[in-house]
């Protein structure tokens, strides 16, 4: 395609569209029809230029025109309680359900790696020496030591807020960095499993694994599930870069990226629950069975939420993407 000829042919339409957008008075019915027609044509022109002869200057001007025209045609829309309800009942669980083929294997593989690391640390004194001296390890694992006092070392509210912030940041990093072919996500997962495996291994060697499980399971089940969901979604986003399927790479990344962004908001809410459990339930005086029972109930409730509501929403056509009105304008491309 000869870009100069294409621009010369359609420049008058773009100028007219810009003039209509800049008009301060209310448009007549005929002008509104003309605006819609010019907007649709400009969207097509933008797609043609992007696919055949990308030029930053022309693409920038057309992108701005199409965005302004789209806003003018569709109007602005404010989020409502219905939007929040739809997100919680359909959008978020559907996005998690759709990603299950990525995050479930990620969870199983990560748990297997964590178990292997725990066994390795528990059975190899030379590996334990990397975590500290014998005196340091005894201080960490003894009754009333660092592992037990960690969960009650700060006021519950501030501790829960700190835990929530740290976990939400880790989940967001998994989702955002996934676009780099998923490699940073794998490293983040390994670090998490190494930290968890170290605790399991050291407490197992000290003969206090039951105590450690009683401290970790109440909040750890839902917390790790959220991290696995974020990691699996991040890896899927990275795979989209490699294999976008029948979609263009740009369209595939846009769709999966929007779903990942929504998932980040939903997982922040899930991790808020995990942080509240870690701040208020884990260090509480409840018996171990009660604390672990709370964690199991919360975990099962989340899985049921995803499989029941999410599965139903997906079968109804929900993808976890934003509503069509909130997506970028798309038009057929031409060579």
Task: List low-confidence stretches.
Answer: 324-335
Oligomerization category of the chains in this entry: single chain
- Mean pLDDT, all residues: 84
Number of strands: 0
Bulk shape: elongated
Task: Estimate the strand proportion.
Answer: under 5%
- Helix/strand order: HHHHHHHHHHHHH
Instruction: Indicate the structural class.
Output: mainly alpha
Q: Biggest sheet: strands, sense, closure?
A: none
Helix content: over 70%
Number of helices: 13
The first-to-last residue Cα distance is: 8 Å
Radius of gyration: 26 Å
Structural account:
With about 325 residues, the protein is an all-alpha fold. About 80% of the residues lie in helices and about 0% in strands. The chain has helices at about 5-20, 30-50, 55-75, 80-100, 100-125, 125-130, 135-140, 145-150, 155-175, 185-205, 210-240, 250-280, 290-315. Helix 2 (about 30-50) runs antiparallel to helix 3 and helix 9 packs across helix 10. It starts with a helix and ends in a 20-residue tail after the last helix.
Entry summary:
The chain has 335 residues and is mostly helical. It has helices at residues 3-22, 29-52, 56-74, 81-98, 100-123, 125-128, 134-141, 146-149, 156-177, 183-205, 209-242, 249-281, 288-315. The radius of gyration is 26 Å and the shape is elongated.
Structural key phrases:
mainly alpha; disordered C terminus; 335 residues
């Amino acid at each position: 395609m000869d870009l100069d000829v294409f621009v010369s042919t359609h420049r008058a339409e773009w100028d007219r569209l810009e003039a209509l957008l800049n008009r301060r008075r209310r448009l007549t019915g005929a002008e509104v029809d003309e605006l819609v027609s010019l907007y649709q044509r400009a969207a097509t022109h933008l797609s043609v230029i992007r696919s055949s002869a990308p030029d930053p200057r022309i693409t920038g001007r057309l992108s701005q025109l199409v965005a302004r025209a789209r806003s003018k045609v569709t109007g602005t829309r404010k989020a409502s309680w219905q939007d929040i309800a739809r997100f919680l009942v359909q959008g978020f669980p559907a996005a998690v359900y759709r990603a299950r083929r990525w995050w479930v294997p990620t969870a199983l593989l990560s748990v297997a790696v964590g178990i292997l690391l725990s066994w390795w640390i528990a059975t190899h004194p030379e590996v334990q020496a990397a975590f500290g001296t014998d005196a340091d390890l005894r201080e960490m694992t003894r009754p009333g030591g660092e592992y037990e006092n960690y969960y009650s070392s700060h006021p519950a509210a501030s501790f829960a807020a700190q835990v929530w912030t740290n976990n939400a940041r880790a989940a967001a990093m998994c989702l955002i960095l996934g676009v780099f072919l998923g490699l940073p996500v794998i490293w983040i997962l390994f670090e998490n499993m190494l930290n968890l495996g170290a605790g399991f291994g050291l407490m197992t060697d000290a003969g206090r694994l039951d105590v450690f499980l009683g401290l970790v399971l109440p909040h750890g089940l839902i917390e790790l599930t959220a991290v696995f969901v974020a990691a699996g979604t991040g890896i899927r986003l990275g795979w989209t870069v490699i294999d976008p399927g029948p979609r263009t790479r740009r369209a595939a990344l846009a769709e999966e990226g929007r779903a990942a962004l929504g998932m980040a908001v939903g997982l922040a809410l899930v991790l808020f629950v995990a942080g509240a459990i870690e701040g208020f339930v884990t260090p509480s005086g409840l018996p171990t069975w009660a604390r672990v029972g709370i964690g199991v109930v919360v975990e099962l409730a989340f899985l049921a939420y995803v499989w029941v509501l999410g599965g139903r929403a997906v079968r109804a056509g929900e993808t976890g993407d934003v509503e069509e009105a909130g997506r970028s304008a798309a038009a057929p491309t031409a060579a």
